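ok trying again, last paste got cut off:
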Amino acid sequence: MRNILEIRDLQVHYGGIEAVKGISLDVPEGEIVTLIGANGAGKSSTLRAIAGLVKPSAGKISFLDEDITGMDSSLIVSKGITLVPEGRRIFQQMTVQENLEMGAYIKKDVSQEDLETVFNYFPRLKERRKQIAGTLSGGEQQMLAVGRALMSRPKLMMLDEPSLGLAPLVVQDIFSIIREINRQGVTVLLVEQNANMALKIADLAYVLETGTITMSGTGAELLADSRVKEAYLGKSS
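nice, full thing came through this time. structure:
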């Protein structure tokens, strides 16, 4: 299986702060890969560098064997990478459908087929397509953020803390949909503090600590690892 994404010796600085310290990782095509770690470990900075939202200070990012390091974010989207950002970042004053249409901005027109694909994943969004997005529940807003990312037909979808602030039952729904999106052929790179949920659906996982990768393995391997249990899952997990 080939890698859809390869990162080599990536460094990200914010002024004098080194957020990512020379990490290397692979994302195999068709799989779910997760990055777990505490706040400030460099997980979001890694996603932002891949998405072109921050410029790496060193290293190389390759997508489908093309060097995309430092490429403009809109061009990266057109290559087939989307980011569902932490905090959802939907357009609060727009309707649900207008938000979804914004996700297709790289296309010349909005495809009804793409809208129906999103509505098949999220029937609640279809029911609320004319509703102002800012009036949705937190879970519905997260669904909208994922749906908006799907509108560009990504090959690789990156999600930054999709469970943040959501009730446990809603989190289960979101993770079920992430799995289904992956089954439909979209590779997933997931950043998530809910390590238990993330590792359960991950084919491959990396642990980031203060900007460096300290462990890697299959999701099942890391779930069973005593160090991961101690640090991220609780001793009883």
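cool. The first strand starts at residue 3 and ends at 14. The chain has ten helices and ten strands.
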